[in-house]
Amino acid sequence: MSSGPSISGTVILCGYASPMYIVMVASECSPAAQAGGLGDVVSGLSRELELRGHAVEIVLPKYDCMRYEHIWGLHLVHEDLRVPWYGGAIGCSVWFGFVHGRKCFFIEPHARDRFFNRGAYYGFADETLRFAFFSKAALEFLLQSGKRPDVIHCHDWHTALAPVLLYEIYQYHGMHDQRVCFTVHNFRHQGIAGEDVLWATGLGKPQYYFDPLRMRDDSNASALNLMKGALLYSNFITTVSPRHAWEAMHTDQGFGLGHCLAVHQGKFGGVLNGVDYDAWNPEVDRRIPHRYGVHCLERKYANKEALRERFWLRRDFKPIVAYVGRLDPQKGVDLIRHAIFYSRQHGAQFVLLGSGSENGVHGQFCSLKRQLNEDPDCHLEIGFSDELAHLIYAGADMMIMPSLFEPCGLTQMIAMRYGTIPIVRAVGGLLDTVFDCDYSASPSPERNGYVFHQADPPGIESALRRAIRLWYDRPQAFRGLMENAMRCDHSWNRPGADYLNIYDYIRYKR
Questions:
Q1: Residues 157, 368: Cα–Cα separation, whole Å
Q2: I want to staple 361 with a disulfide (CB 3.0 to 4.6 A). Which of 26, 131, 356, 467 is the partner?
Q3: How far apart are CA 321 and CA 335, in angstroms?
C-alpha cells in the first residue's frame, strides 16, 4: 500500500489494486431523478469510478415523476421483492435501466401509502417513513438478489438508516463483509423521526436506540435522529468539502451534530464534489451558440451578446454580473437583492435565473422582477431552465454566490470552467475552490475570483467593487483571471481517487 491523500486531517491508505464492487444508495441520480446537486454527485462520482475500472450500481426509489426519457432499457428484474414492514411485508417490483450509462435499479413498492407515487420527490409529512422504507428495501434487495458489494455508499439522511439496519440486522443474514461510506450533503436536514420507524423497520428496542450514545436526537429527547445513527454506524463519513467538514464539527453548521462528529472525527473528512465536464464544458457545450476555450476566449463575447439579445439587455460596454441557483435563505437572498442594485449603480448589468424555495422569497423576487421589468440593464428570470443556465454561464462576466452556508457549491466551479469569475462568500466549499485575486496567499496563477467574509452589504460590495473595477481599468489582468479560472481542474478525477482511498481503507480496517 502507498500513502494516499489526507482527507481533512484523516490520513487514508491507498492500495486499490483490484477492482471493487460499489453500490450507491441514494434518493436522486441526475438527470432521471433530480431535485438538486445530490443527483449530480451520485451520477458524476459513479461515472468516475467506472472509468477507473470499478463496478458501480445505483439503487433508487422508482418515482412516478422521474424523467423516464433519460432511462434507457427500463425493464423488470425482480417481480416480488418482499420487504418486512411492521411485522408484515410489502411487495415491491425492482426495475433496471441505464441513466446516461449508469446502471440503476429502481425499487417500486406496492403499498397503500404510495411512498413514491405522489408527483414529487420530497415534501410530505411522512418523509422519514418513506425513506426508512427505501433504506430497508435497498438492503433487502441486495440480500435477496445475492449482491455483496465491497462498499455500500449511502447519501444524505434519506439513506441514513441503511448503515443501522446493516449492522443491527443484515450482517447476521449473510451481509457481514459489507462496509459503508456515508456522505452528508446537507447537515440541515437530518431525518428526525419517532419510535414508529423502529417498529416499521424491525429494529424495535426503543430503549436501546433512544440511548443518547446511539440515535437519540441531541435537541429532542423524544425523537430519533437518523443522520446521527448513520454517523455512529458507518465505517467512514464524508461531507462535500474539507472546509465544511471543519465547519460542521466546530461551528453551528453541524446543526447540532458537532459533538457527534467530534467523537467520530477519526472516521470523518471532507471530499470536494466534482463537476461533470461532459455536461459543463464550453469547448463542447451544444447548448450555447458559440463554443470556446481558454485559447479562444474571444468567442465567449459572442455568447455575451447572445445573452443580451435573449434577455433584451442594452448593448453597451459593461460587464454582466449573474446569479444562477435556488432563491433560498441559505443562498443569501438579501445579498443577492443588494447585488442587483449595486451592480446597476456601478456600471454593470445583472441577470438572474432562479426560483424561490419558500413562498415569501419567491414572491419577493417576482415583485422585484415587476419593478425592474423595463430596465435595459437587468433581467430576472424566475424559474429554472437548463438551456438558459448554460447561456448565462457562457455569457456573463461574473457570478455571485453570497451564501450564508455552502457545503460545497457547484455553481462557482461551473462558472470558472466558462471563464466567468466567481464572487463568493468565504464559507464551505466556496473557500476551498475560490482564491481571491488580491488577497489570497496562493500563487498568482492559482487566483481565480473574489472572496468576501461578512454576510452584509459592505461585504459583497467590497468584492463586487474590486471585480468591476478590474474589468474596466485592467482588462488584460481580468482576462488573465479568466484564464486562471478556466485552467482549474474541478473534474471528478481527484474526488474519485479520494473516495477510492476511503473505500480501500474501510475494506481492510476491521
A1: 35
A2: 356
A3: 13
| Overall average pLDDT of the 197-212 stretch | 97
pLDDT: which is higher, 222 or 12: 222
Which residues are bridge partners to 180 per DSSP? 152
Residue 391 belongs to what H/E stretch?
A: helix 386-395
Q: Which amino acid is at 452?
A: F
Q: How far apart are the first and last CA of the chain?
A: 16
For range 437-447, the mean pLDDT: 96
122: exposed, middle or buried (C-beta count within 10 Å: 0-12, 13-18, 19+)? middle
Strands 2-7 and 10-14: antiparallel
Residue-level pLDDT at 356: 79
Rounded Cα distance between 206 and 203, Å, is: 8
Domain range 298-487, CATH class: alpha beta
Region 53-63: mean pLDDT is: 98
Task: Spell out the SS3 assignment of 26-75.
Answer: CCCECCCECCCHHHHHHHHHHHHHHHCCCEEEEEEECCCCCCHHHEEEEE
Q: Name the strand (E) or helix (H) holding 232.
A: helix 226-233
Which of 92, 403, 84, 408 is closest to 241 using CA atoms? 408
Among candidate residues 251, 244, 225, the one with its CA nearest the CA of residue 428: 244
Whether domain 20-274+493-508 has CATH 3.40.50.150: the reply is no
Is 20-274+493-508's fold the same as 298-487's? yes
**DSSP labels for 253-277?**
GGTT-HHHHHHTGGGEEE------T
Q: What are the tens digits of pLDDT across the range 452-507?
A: 999 999 999 999 999 999 999 999 999 999 999 999 999 999 999 999 999 999 99
Domains of the chain: which residue ranges?
A: 20-274+493-508, 298-487
Q: Classify each residue of 192-203 as buried b or exposed e, where b means 16 or more C-beta atoms within 10 Å of its C-beta.
A: bbeeebbebbeb
101, pLDDT greater than 60: yes
**Between these two residues, 35 and 446, which has the higher pLDDT value?**
446
Whose cell is 453548521? That residue is 253
